[in-house]
Design goal:
Length: 405
């Protein structure tokens, strides 16, 4: 997926100023022409009128780099940066010639208004047109409004959808290798509420809230069914997706996770960690968790991975840490659900995982009808990051065998 279609526009003499080139004001008009042309090629220029709304420009900023002259053919690329409840943020780039010289860039925020000029919620079709066309260039993150929070999402590729749900206290970058390489699938890796670059409200955290956020994200992206891959807490969320949104799940990949709820002891430890997060912040959580999260081999041989995970934890907002700890403490037991899983399922566990060790993973896999299990040598609790190639290979083989919708 690559954003709205790019369009080519010829620069006319009357658009140029006394110096004979496009000035910033003229670029604003050129970008506007490009937007309408792109709509004409896609959903139609009457997209907004069909729904009784109008896209009012709230803010537009041109970054001017090089002049354009009469007769130049300028290629304009349009990407969506954010689809909000009532607004869209777009970025447009004007490029010229074989070298694709960047002439100017525009960031524009458009609010949908009704006939009285009031901001109005985005109709589903419009959200779908723009949301489903979010840019998916490597490493590019886009934000989606899913109700009371905005989620940061990496998405890449086309095909049936794979939703990659990270664990605690981590973020979507945990899945960077899988997002980059699982070709043939539309890979969607969000930051859960309270994690990474997503909103981190003070309250409202539970497994149900995480799962409902993700279901709304799928609505936004116009994705009906997905394979859900969840690591650890992401696995708890995957179980909740199965509990609450089963019709949308066409496969499960349960990575370094468990089905059991917290024991009384574990619940007490969650309370202690909530106090640590509140009083000492994310770095103190990182100090305590790093040795548990990463396997012995990784700690010895991959110091860059240790640092990467430390940074990931340290950028997690305290509200998100506290929220996730409470959500995990209060999560329901999912062991009773396992026998009901009637979609293809794969369990992956790091051989050195101390938090959800291989025997636990084997018991979980045995309780899911037909589930496959793979133990990954040299990996601890964060196997997709510690041994990315091995985990991606196992996932690719599993996905290959999933019946396509
Ligand atoms: C995780 O990796 O998501 C957490 O360690 C899970 C947990 O603490 O239960």
């Amino acid at each position: 997926m690559s954003g709205l279609p790019s369009v080519e526009i010829t620069v006319y003499p009357y658009e140029c100023d006394a110096y004979g080139h496009l000035n910033e004001a003229a670029f604003l008009q050129l970008f506007e022409r490009a937007r309408w042309d792109a709509l004409a090629r896609g959903p139609g220029q009457d997209l907004f009128q069909r729904h009784g709304v109008w896209p009012a420009v709230r803010r537009a900023e041109v970054d001017y780099h090089l002049p354009a002259f009469p007769g130049d053919v300028v290629r304009v690329e349009t990407e969506m940066e954010k689809v909000g409840r009532t607004s869209l943020t777009l970025r447009q780039r004007a490029l010229r010639g074989a070298g694709q010289l960047l002439l100017a860039e525009l960031q524009i925020v458009v609010v949908l208004i009704d006939r009285d000029g009031n901001a109005t919620p985005m109709p589903e079709e419009i959200a779908g047109v723009f949301g489903a066309r979010m840019s998916s260039r490597p490493g590019e993150m886009v934000r989606h409004d899913v109700g009371d929070v905005t989620l940061a999402v990496d998405s890449r590729g086309d095909g049936p959808a794979l939703l990659l749900v990270h664990g605690y206290p981590l973020d979507r970058t945990l899945w960077a290798h899988q997002v980059a390489t699982l070709a043939g699938w539309r890979r969607v890796a969000p930051d859960l509420r309270g994690a990474g670059a997503s909103d981190a409200p003070e309250g409202g955290y539970s497994m149900a809230a995480y799962a409902d956020d993700l279901a709304r994200l799928l609505d936004r992206l116009r994705i009906e069914r997905v394979v859900v891959a969840g690591l650890s807490m992401g696995g708890y969320v995957a179980f909740e997706m199965w509990r609450r949104h089963r019709q949308r799940v066409m496969g499960l990949v349960l990575v370094d996770t468990r089905a059991e709820a917290d024991s009384a002891d574990a619940r007490r430890r969650r309370e202690e960690m909530i106090t640590v997060a509140r009083t000492k912040g994310a770095p103190a959580i990182a100090e305590r968790m790093l040795p548990q999260l990463l396997g012995r081999s990784t700690r010895q041989a991959q110091p860059h991975v240790v640092e990467q995970v430390r940074e990931m934890i340290c950028r997690t907002p305290v509200a998100g840490l506290v929220g996730a700890l409470g959500a995990m403490r209060d999560r329901p037991d999912s062991t009773g659900l396992l026998a009901s899983i009637d979609v293809p399922a794969l369990v992956i566990v790091g051989e050195e995982d101390e938090l959800t060790p291989p025997p636990l993973a084997r018991a979980m896999a045995a309780a899911i009808p037909g589930a496959a299990i793979t133990a990954v040598p040299g990996a601890g609790h964060l196997s997709p990051l510690e041994e990315p190639t091995a985990v991606t290979r196992v996932m690719a083989a599993f996905l290959e065998a999933i019946p396509r919708p």
